[in-house]
Specification:
Two copies of one chain form a homodimer. By secondary structure, the first copy, chain A, is of the alpha+beta class. Helix content of chain A is about 35%, strand content about 25%. In chain A, strands 9-16-11-15-12-13-14 form a seven-stranded mixed beta sheet, sandwiched between helices. A five-stranded mixed beta sheet of chain A has the order 3-10-8-7-6, with helices on both faces. A four-stranded mixed beta sheet of chain A has the order 1-2-4-5, sandwiched between helices. The first copy, chain A, starts with 6 loop residues before the first strand and ends with a helix. About 0% of the residues of chain A have low confidence.
């Protein structure tokens, strides 16, 4: 994993939920670094989300404080106080203002944050700070994840290398309990804040906002993009800058790779399926149809069974609420096999051809609506026994 | 089961999917009977749905033809031709016009209807017609249902008894494959067609349109209300009629009982849970919140595990998209146990109290939003291993 100049990471074991494993991470940004972020739109957002939003408005962050094992969500006033206390503890240890600390939590909802445990190991995490800390940090933020998620891109500008490195956790998109999605990206470039925010928003849409494991949106989701400014290259200040396009491309690639890894590691997932909807009247309807397919429990159980049960896909398209859909013009494909044409099963379709695609570990469901020029892509996984097992047995 | 004067039912074994069990039903209506119906809104509606809609516009039905085992959906032009052929076969056997036959199918999508098999046993079903045929018919229309669903109400007007009897099938709300929802109700009253349709629409909303097993809507759903007119009572012609209110009440009760039975028999279901959302700004938002909870795979797996994982319910409320939701004013209850108040876990809540409700076979999740006077009720069930098993292994 490529380190990013101007960004150091450290981790420590606070024993928040499980003893003996790192569950607290500190990310330290160089002075003058800029920070952009997007957060969950869930109305019941967690205390650290509310506080991180506020601190981000108030100034330039120097430190990110992340814990796994406890979401500090559904904790009312006490939750906000606990998030403040932890920020204060880290600010005190680092000698900065409390507003310069952004807090993030993931884990069980509704239990109070064990602030004392966090406080005790904050000095350990600070002492552990190093540019090469990405790998350990990416493990420390895991909950039901079965593996860490890291990605990196590098490009050169006039012989000067620019790095974009990111890590993420999340094992459902997006679970209120143990599978909140958190993602942290950093570059050594200097990038103006507004531009950084626009770049992040553009990268998040086709990546983290186009994946689904079970359609649930966490109270704690957050994605942060840091520009440390440690690079010798001049600051990027507008979208016409020759560097901006390559930077934005690298950010999007890192986001896409992390998003794909999250779905691949979806709770109980055995398959990665891309749902592509083409020739829609506009992007909104393309996304509606794609998500209706990607969320359907019947489609997802058929994926698990490798059953080319195309009727379920057709029915999902039909119930997605498109005004005046001409079903005779809809085509549905599994990779290169056409399954639906002229309002019914394609005449040249065979079960063997469909089944051979469905047995693949990764494939594409493509729907062509013949209504316009817009399209959308969504990544999803199957619904297996293990999904029920993980979510029925967790906590008990 | 109470028979309805002016309505006879017969069934026969056509061997459409399984040999040796009845899978074809004919319902015969007295001359002059009226018929109201509601159908699926899925754009990929099945051939019999398209044809039944058309025939209903063209005249007064005398015969309903229902088959299980094959949905005749996703079958294109051939499907429509096959539905027409079957209607013609029955019309020929009964000596009526083809427009007087309404066709209904439930079963596998995308296979052509075996019209020859239907044709061979139509005379058997006709010979079998009797007013007491409800029980056998309710079994003949089953697919993944584990038990037949029947309900009946009776009231008296001036000493004359009026009967409303209904049967339904459906084991998911509402599956594209084997669990299409079909429901047939009949009364001996004479009721004007417009009134009958309004009565059905009003009864369907809180019953069949307020249940969910997995959020999928079939290509074949239909609900029919027959008024045979065999009663000696005068025809009901307006909503101010003293009889209308009692009739409408009986229809709604029968629909509610059948809807409840469908969820209880949901694929893999072990629990029946009513989600009640109160004090919403309007009914639309009340239903949005109720369905967001009722569809959440995380809530449903928690129900299966009897785990009072209230964070999942809170997160579902939070992501249901209510503009300006004041989370401090939201209360969430499991039966009589308050779990969320003031934006977090209720101070007097205990896990034992929550768990004792969750272990019940039937209970209520109640959410109070404190935003207005509207409410909504939705019935749902849990998501179990058997749901995955049934839907992953079916067809293979």
């Amino acid at each position: 994993m490529r380190a990013v100049a101007g960004v150091r990471l450290g981790s420590a074991a606070a024993g928040i939920r499980v003893a003996g494993r790192d569950d607290l991470v500190v990310i330290e940004l160089a002075e003058g670094a800029e920070c952009a972020a997007v957060f969950t739109r869930n109305a019941f957002c967690a205390a650290p989300v509310a506080l991180a939003r506020r601190h981000l408005r108030q100034g330039s962050p120097r430190l990110l404080l992340i814990n796994a094992g406890n979401a500090n969500a559904g904790t009312g006033r006490q939750g906000l106080q606990d998030a403040l206390t932890s920020c204060q503890d880290l600010a005190g240890a680092a000698g900065c203002n409390i507003e310069q600390v952004l807090p993030f939590s993931t884990g069980v909802i509704g239990e109070n944050l064990p602030v004392e445990r966090l406080r005790q190991v904050i000095p350990d995490a600070m002492a552990d700070l190093e540019p090469a800390g990405w790998e350990r940090a990416s493990r420390a933020i895991m909950t039901t994840d079965t593996r860490p998620k890291l990605a990196s891109r590098r490009f050169e500008v006039d012989g000067v290398p620019v790095t974009v490195t990111g890590m993420a956790k999340g094992s459902g998109m997006i679970h209120p309990d143990m599978a909140t999605m958190l993602a942290y990206l950093a570059t050594d470039l200097a990038v103006e804040r507004k531009l950084l925010q626009a770049c992040l928003a553009a990268a998040v849409k086709p990546s983290f906002n186009s994946i689904t494991v079970d359609g649930d949106t966490s109270t704690n989701d957050a994605c942060v993009l840091i520009a440390s400014g440690a690079s010798s290259l001049p600051p990027v200040t507008d979208t016409n800058s020759p560097i901006y396009e390559r930077f934005a491309q690298a950010v999007q690639e890192v986001c896409m790779e992390l998003a794909r890894d999250i779905v691949r590691d979806g709770e109980g997932a055995t398959k990665l399926v891309e749902v592509v909807v083409e020739q829609a009247a506009d992007e909104a309807e393309a996304r509606d149809v794609a998500f209706t397919i990607a969320h359907s429990p019947l489609v997802k159980t058929a994926l698990f069974a490798s059953d080319p049960n195309w009727g379920r896909i057709l029915a999902a398209v039909g119930r997605s609420g498109l005004e005046g859909l001409a079903i005779d013009r809809v085509e549905i494909w599994l990779d290169d096999v056409c399954i639906v044409r002229n309002g019914g099963r394609a005449s040249d379709y065979t079960e063997q051809a469909g089944a051979s695609v469905m047995r693949r570990r990764e494939f594409t469901i493509r729907v062509s609506l013949d209504r316009g020029g817009a399209d959308a892509r969504v990544l999803t996984c199957d619904l297996s026994y293990d999904y029920v097992k993980i979510n029925a047995e967790y906590r008990t």
